[in-house]
Write a structure and sequence with these properties.
The protein is α+β, with helices and mostly antiparallel strands. The chain is about 45% helix and about 20% strand. The protein has 10 helices and 11 strands. It has a 5-stranded antiparallel β-sheet. A two-stranded antiparallel sheet has the order 6-7. Strands 8-11 form a two-stranded antiparallel ribbon. Strand 9 and strand 10 form a beta hairpin. The longest helix is centred in the C-terminal third of the chain and has 20 residues. It is globular, with a radius of gyration of 19 Å. The N and C termini lie far apart (about 50 Å).
């Protein structure tokens, strides 16, 4: 962290930075923690010399945090400032997941989803990790999900060599059969969009949402993502959710469909090590086993 970056953070927030520490890096961004002169603690994503893509990614995350917070259902850190090369948010104190907190989080997630969205997609360009996310609005979830969430990442993963021709054909069959696989129609929900366990922080006895790829989507997408990499106390999260907003019949059979998009994204980001999971999800959808 350079003195110049500390100055930039202070200028963005209008408050001098008392101290700053490096907290790691991810997807090409520096992660920092900062103590401001007024005593507040902040978490900073920094991309020195940020380009247009970085500016869009930081703006999308800030927009998503604010939009999800408008639902008043699940706590999110406040956005303190955003620019083309900095995103500064409230730093949350460390906590732990408890069963009661998990159940409360599930109920809050259901209420957040119920706040709804104007359409599938969002009025800003999206990002998931370092990859652009097409948020072009749509009115019917199945075709929107196939064209905006499956096809682009399937093509990229295949072009990059992470998936072979057989994998391509298998997922294309899912895309072609999306109408019968998507389940009953539902209105757009206000979803996080990248809700793996690492994007839920447990602090002060509650589950907080961070790093959203927020958009109008299908509520089952967030729940399937929580299950993909093993959220703590998932059964209690689901109890809280379904006790507040029951899911449509057959939702368990649709979990692999909602997991297919993040698996394709991981294949794009990390290569062929995710090919087997992509194949397994597609086969379960097509054969039921």
């Amino acid at each position: 962290m350079t003195a110049g970056q500390a100055t930039r953070i202070g200028e963005l927030l209008g408050v001098p930075v008392a101290s700053v520490r490096t907290a790691g890096a991810q997807h090409g961004y520096q992660h920092l923690t900062a103590r401001l002169a007024d005593g507040r603690q902040a978490f900073v994503k920094a991309a020195p010399g940020g380009d247009e893509a970085t500016a869009e990614a930081f703006a999308a995350e800030a927009n998503g945090l604010r939009w999800l917070a408008e639902a008043g259902a699940v706590p999110l850190p406040r956005v303190l400032g955003v620019s083309r090369d900095l995103l500064v948010i409230e730093l949350l104190p460390d906590g732990r997941a408890t069963q009661d907190a998990a159940e409360e989080f599930g109920a809050g997630l259901a209420r957040m989803h119920a706040a709804g969205a104007a359409s599938f997609g969002a009025p800003w360009p999206g990002y998931l990790a370092s990859l652009p996310l097409d948020n072009t609005p749509g009115t019917e979830w199945g075709s929107w999900y196939a064209e905006q969430r499956l096809v682009p990442y399937l093509k990229k993963a295949h072009d990059d060599g992470a998936l072979d021709d057989a994998d391509l054909s298998l997922v294309e069959t899912v895309v072609n059969r999306i109408g019968e696989l998507a389940g009953p129609p539902e209105p757009p929900s206000r979803i996080h969009g990248d809700l793996w366990a690492g994007n839920v922080l447990w602090s002060g006895g509650r589950g907080w949402l961070i790093d959203p790829a927020a958009h109008g989507g299908h509520r089952e997408t967030d729940l399937a993502m929580l299950a993909l990499f093993g959220a703590p106390h998932l059964e209690r999260i689901m109890r809280g959710y379904t006790g507040t907003a029951p899911l449509a019949d057959g939702w368990r059979a649709r979990v692999p469909l909602h997991q297919l998009h993040p698996l394709l994204v991981h294949a794009c980001l990390f290569g062929g090590s995710y090919a087997a999971q992509v194949r397994a999800a597609a086969r379960v959808l097509l054969t039921g086993s």
